[in-house]
Amino acid sequence: MKITKIQSQRDVNRVNIYIDEKFAFGLSIEIAYKYNLEKNMEIDEEYIENVLKAEEQDRANNYAIKLLSYRWRSEKEIRDKMIEKGYEIDVIDNTVDYLYRQNLLNDKRFAQTLARDKINLNKWGSYRIKQDLYMKGISKDIIDEVLDEYCDDEYERAMILAKKKITSYKKDDKNATYRKLGGFLQRKGYSYDCVSRILKELLG
Questions:
Q1: Pairing mode, strands 22-28 and 14-19
Q2: Is 109 strand, coil or helix?
Q3: Half-sphere exposure of 139 toward its Cβ, with a 13 Å CA cutoff?
């Protein structure tokens, strides 16, 4: 078999490969260069298979990088998204290794960023942050470390949130305010002990 034409696609980063005058496959210029593909080159089935595997891996890596361009993600999130996309497990493993080598994947950094954002923007408590990190595949050791680092002032944060929220219950009696404020703080992810302490201090 012989490569008889290499034709540019509309995407300037990709080309079409023709073998024995027939279109064979498209691939990135980077892979074409990596495998030294050129016109009149003799090529066999094994070489083609290696080229196509490299192209698939390149696509997978670029897909994962695109996911990370929106926000940091955990390893589990990357794996789940790639499984949904239909990538094979060995391709996913290679992509995850590549992301770690490029310092694009780091579960501790991800957990720290999520905890910081959820505390500052959403006013979440430690229990909800813990649940969210667990669902995203973060290990218990990392979760415990991050919660110790970012949630040591949970009572103070919950009290500020409660004092602000309680003003919206002016028309409610004490029992209704107690129930509503407690439910609000629990939904935000504050612990039972923390919520009970605040309710006693604010409502008696």
A1: antiparallel
A2: helix
A3: 8
Which CATH code, of 3.40.50.150, 3.30.420.240, 3.30.110.40, 1.10.10.10, is assigned to 1-43? 1.10.10.10
Which residue carries 């309710």 as its tokens?
A: 199
Burial of 120-135, coded b for 16+ CB within 10 Å and e otherwise, reads eeebbbbbbbbebbee
What one-character DSSP code corresponds to residue 1? -
CATH code at 107-150: 1.10.10
Which burial class, exposed, middle or buried, applies to 64 when counting CB atoms under 10 A from its CB (0-12, 13-18, 19+)? buried
Type of residue numbered 127: Y
Pair 94, 79: CB distance under 8 Å: no
Q: Are 21 and 4 in contact (CB under 8 A)?
A: yes
Classify residue 4 as left (phi > 0), alpha (psi -120 to 50) or beta: alpha
pLDDT band of 12, cuts 50, 70, 90: confident
Neighbours of 62 (CB within 10 A): 12
**SS3 at position 10:** coil
C-alpha 189/C-alpha 128 separation (Å) is 4
pLDDT digits (tens, 9 = 90+) for 15-66: 999 999 999 999 999 999 999 898 999 989 999 999 999 999 999 999 999 9
